[in-house]
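Lab notebook, bench 4. We co-purified these components, and the gel suggests they stay together. Before we commit to crystallization screens, I want a quick structural picture of the whole thing.
Request: model the full complex, all chains together.
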Amino acid sequence: MIKIAAIHGSPRKNQNSDTLMAAVIEGMGEKVQISHIYTALEDIRPCTACNACFKEGKCIIKDFMQEAYKILDEADIVITATPVFFHSVTAQLKAFIDRTQAVWASKYVIDNSVISRKRRLGFAVCTGGPPEEKSYFDCTLKVLDIFHKCINAKLAGSITAADVDRHQIKDREDILNQARQEGKKLIDMYKNK
Ligand SMILES: Cc1cc2nc3c(=O)[nH]c(=O)nc-3n(C[C@H](O)[C@H](O)[C@H](O)COP(=O)(O)O)c2cc1C
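Here is the predicted assembly.
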């Protein structure tokens, strides 16, 4: 069974970014095992830059992230969905991402990665409020790219949707279909790795 980690960045459950990610997952078919991480609903404290991970190769803050590291380690595919907030990811997702500094330290300082280096794929889902403007998603996708690299997941693709404040994703069959196709492509890519 292919294991999926679905990371939800929105503080609003089941809204636009969640719906778009759900369509990607639907397109992947039924033979996947999904672990959902709702960053806004979990106890995820921000990184304090204590640098304990530079010595211990793991984070010493005892909160939900201890479970999240295991979910990421086991995942074959990591999908991260976020609304764009000020051209970046949400604060809740940023706290999650910053805590993967411990993964970075385990690899590049300690040389003993807490997340296995097996081949893992990543996928990014981003939604934005106003109508599409070129470059609106650029910064957010850059953050998501480096995040997926950090957790040993090659970002295989992304889907972005603008104008969701006026036209909600749930009513946009065109973009939902595109997301389903991306999900199918992603699973095919994983199987043919
Ligand atoms: C604090 C805040 C900042 C936002 N900044 C941006 C932005 O920079 N660019 C953009 O396209 N949309 C921006 N938006 C709109 C959200 O991206 C949009 O409402 C969102 O994609 C909804 O996702 P959700 O329904 O999954 O929560 C912002 C919304 C909030 C609340």
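The chain has a mean pLDDT of 96. Worth comparing against the SEC data before the next meeting. The CA atoms of residues 129 and 165 lie 5 Å apart.
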